[in-house]
Amino acid sequence: MSSLFERLRDALAPEYELERELGAGGMGVVFLARDSALDRRVAIKIIRPELATARATERFLREARLLAQLKHPSIMPVHRAGEAGGFPYYVMDYCEEETLQARLERGPLSPPEAVRLGCQLLEGLEAVHRAGLVHRDIKPANVFLLGDRAVLGDFGLAIPETVGTSTPTEPAGFVGTPGYTPPEQAAGEVVTARTDLYAVGVVLYEAITCRRWYAPAPEDAPDWSHVPVALRPVLRRALAWSPERRWRDAARFRRALAAGARGHTWRWVALGGSLAGAALIAWILWAPPPPGVDGSGRRVRVLPFESRVAGRALLGDSLARLVAADLSGSPDFVVLGPGDDAARVAVELQGVVRADGGALCAAVRLRPRDPQTVAFSDVCAPDGQTATLADSLARFVMLALWTAQQPLIADLPRNAMPRTTV
């Protein structure tokens, strides 16, 4: 039987001369080809044949139509779409330059380079959002560096913002890329333009630091030491857990980013960032339960938090008790106390609570039995709303654990989760 390359080559000839495969993703395969009429190299994307159902084909062609409507130098253009030999395909520019992901393998960008890249991405997103779309898969691998221009590609997960959560062709389960997916998208909730802004914040943090945002910092709070002070409040607001506390739109984010690069201090931005805090769910690999221990429940131990709030030494203990109480309300978890046998514990939640500009903030780590830290969060709430802070921390734990095993994601008991976010 002929290979996929050979069959596609024959189907596209003589208009296109297929040269080689460039790469493959979850749903599609991209090939390098030469446009015979224009004598130029192009990239041709097809659906993986084994996944080419009617729904997948509809979704694929929708992606092509969406891209064709977006005309902007920071958005990958589509030139043609069609079907040949049973292969739905579309033709786009071939980017001979590298992706941001490949570039970061050589080290971080300088702050001016990162700001320029961020402003260009946000300019492109302004056009995307004006068209009523949400990209939903912004990450370094989908950012192409064409000379001094950043170009956003791969709109395979884009949906109209009016749809909110899904489309008739949406695959079941987790949608997005673990490590770059905003919290509301990971939870299967409504996504908006602000969902994309969170992802841009994640990308910029990584571009400047060469560290993944969700990776635990060596201290008890996110490591901002490599981010210029003037840019920290801008990125903190983009990375707020609650969409309502992020930048209102891409234009405001872009202007604040450019102003931060010029060294301005935005006190009102810093306040919004400190109240919102930030968190990201890591992709957790569960170890099996120890011999003789029933694995039907997820055994979580919430350790007393360290309190760094002056005059409130017991605050950490009371906050930990509130979080444990919230988790105990779900049948999916077994909450163990500090004195329980460590062998029975699947994961431990530990952290530090601090005061931050009129807010209470908790930096927490979720650890499995082995010493590796697998999830980190920094969440804030207005001072006096300890229960709200505890509710948000419990929500973080639930989301992290529920997304740990991919087969479970499509059937998560969403309604059992605490609904308060900050």
Structure commentary:
31% of the residues lie in helices and 22% in strands. It has 11 helices and 16 strands. Strands 10, 11, 12, 13, 14, 15 and 16 form a 7-stranded mixed β-sheet that branches. A hairpin with a 6-residue loop joins β15 and β16. The chain is elongated. It starts with a helix and ends in a 20-residue tail after the last helix.
Features:
alpha+beta, 16 strands, 422 residues
Number of strands: 16
Given the structure, what is the number of helices?
11
**What's the alpha carbon Rg, rounded to whole Å?**
23 Å
Class based on secondary structure composition and strand pairing:
alpha+beta
Distance between the first and last residues' Cα:
56 Å
Q: Runs with pLDDT <50, length 5+? A: 166-174, 215-220, 264-297, 404-422
Query: What order do the helices and strands follow?
Result: HEEEHEEHHEEEEHHHHHEEEHEEEEH
TL;DR of this structure?
By secondary structure, the protein is α+β, with helices and mostly antiparallel strands.
Chain-wise SSE layout:
Layout (H helix, E strand, L loop, with lengths): L3 H9 L3 E9 L3 E8 L4 E8 L6 H16 L8 E7 L2 E7 L6 H5 L6 H20 L2 E2 L8 E4 L2 E4 L6 E2 L22 H4 L6 H17 L22 H7 L11 H12 L5 H10 E4 L17 E5 L3 E2 L7 H14 L4 E4 L10 E10 L2 E10 L6 E8 L3 H17 L20
Helix pairs in contact: 4-6, 4-8, 7-9, 10-11
